[in-house]
């Protein structure tokens, strides 16, 4: 990845404010104290580009356990965070835990896919993060989620997502991330990224790559409106 983005990640690591919860620990990609988690969230923050600023309205879709909200609170003073989890036993548990930790902060909005909070988030957000969501969804689910989030792109917002690239499309084990608790890893292809770009008539720019737990290389894409 280019030098400017690497410098950006270094800047991202500099903290300006106290976190919402110093004792917060979340699962997946480490914790908010571990380097791999910082690397993951910085990689997504690079994709935010000019949207990353005071007052931003961020939708953390499908993995909304407030990890990113806690990170943002160390770097921005004013922001609106929507954390949306799958409407499943696992997702409900994540939301219940997040409410316990962050429910008293008026910058934080938390709920489940299919609830009114999801509609509110899609109506208001200028930036969407799908942190390792499309690494667990079938291509049909990926398309359905992008379709749902398309209004944000059409009004000038950005959708940032990660995929694991392989030689061929290969869903391994159980998937259906938005429906089930049991899911496996999905390998995508560059051809599929291009197909998504063409189908939705959007720009998809590779902004960062990082190695996650298990040796998987995540490719982070920024999706924006295609200029006429």
The rounded distance between the terminal residues' Cα atoms is 28 Å
Which architecture would the CATH scheme give at its second level?
3-Layer(aba) Sandwich
Number of domains: 1
**Helix and strand pattern:** HHEHEHEHEHEEEHEE
Number of β-strand runs: 9
Instruction: Report the top-level CATH class.
Output: Alpha Beta
Q: Which percent range fits the helix content?
A: 25-40%
Q: What is the fold named in CATH at topology level?
A: Rossmann fold
The amount of beta strand, in percent, is: 15-25%
What would CATH call the homologous superfamily?
Vaccinia Virus protein VP39
Shape: globular
Radius of gyration, Cα only, in angstroms?
Answer: 16 Å
Q: Can you tell me the residue ranges where pLDDT is under 50 for at least 5 consecutive residues?
A: 27-35
What kind of sheet is the major sheet?
9 strands, mixed
On the 0 to 100 scale, the average pLDDT is 83
Structural class: alpha/beta
Helix count from the secondary structure assignment: 7
What report would you give on this structure?
This protein is of the alpha/beta class. It has one domain: Rossmann fold, CATH 3.40.50.150. It contains seven helices and nine strands; from the N terminus they run H-H-E-H-E-H-E-H-E-H-E-E-E-H-E-E. The chain has helices at 3-12, 35-48, 67-72, 89-102, 116-124, 139-154, 190-200; strands spanning 56-61, 79-85, 108-112, 127-130, 158-165, 170-171, 186-188, 202-211, 217-225. Strands 1, 2, 3, 4, 5, 6, 7, 8 and 9 form a nine-stranded mixed β-sheet that branches. Helix 1 (3-12) packs across helix 2. The longest helix is centred in the middle third of the chain and has 16 residues, at 139-154. The radius of gyration is 16 Å and the shape is globular.
């Amino acid at each position: 990845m280019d030098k400017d983005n690497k410098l950006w990640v270094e800047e991202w690591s500099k903290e300006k404010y106290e976190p919402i919860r110093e004792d917060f620990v979340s699962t997946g990609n480490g914790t908010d104290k571990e380097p791999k988690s910082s690397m993951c969230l910085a990689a997504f923050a690079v994709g935010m580009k000019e949207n990353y600023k005071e007052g931003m309205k961020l939708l953390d879709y499908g993995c909304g356990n407030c990890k990113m909200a806690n990170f943002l609170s160390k770097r921005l003073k004013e922001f609106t965070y929507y954390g949306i989890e799958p409407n499943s036993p696992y997702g409900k548990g994540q939301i219940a835990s997040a409410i316990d930790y962050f429910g008293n902060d008026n910058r934080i909005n938390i709920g489940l896919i299919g609830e009114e909070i999801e509609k509110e988030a899609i109506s208001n957000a200028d930036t969407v993060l799908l942190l390792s969501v499309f690494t667990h969804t079938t291509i049909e689910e990926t398309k359905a989620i992008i379709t749902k989030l398309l209004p944000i792109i059409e009004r000038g917002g950005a959708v940032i997502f990660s995929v694991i690239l392989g030689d061929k499309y290969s869903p391994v084990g159980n998937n259906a991330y938005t429906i089930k608790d049991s899911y496996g890893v999905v390998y995508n292809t560059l051809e599929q990224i291009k197909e998504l770009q063409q189908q939705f008539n959007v720009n998809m720019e590779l902004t960062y790559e990082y190695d996650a737990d298990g040796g998987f290389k995540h490719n982070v894409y920024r999706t924006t409106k295609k200029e006429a």
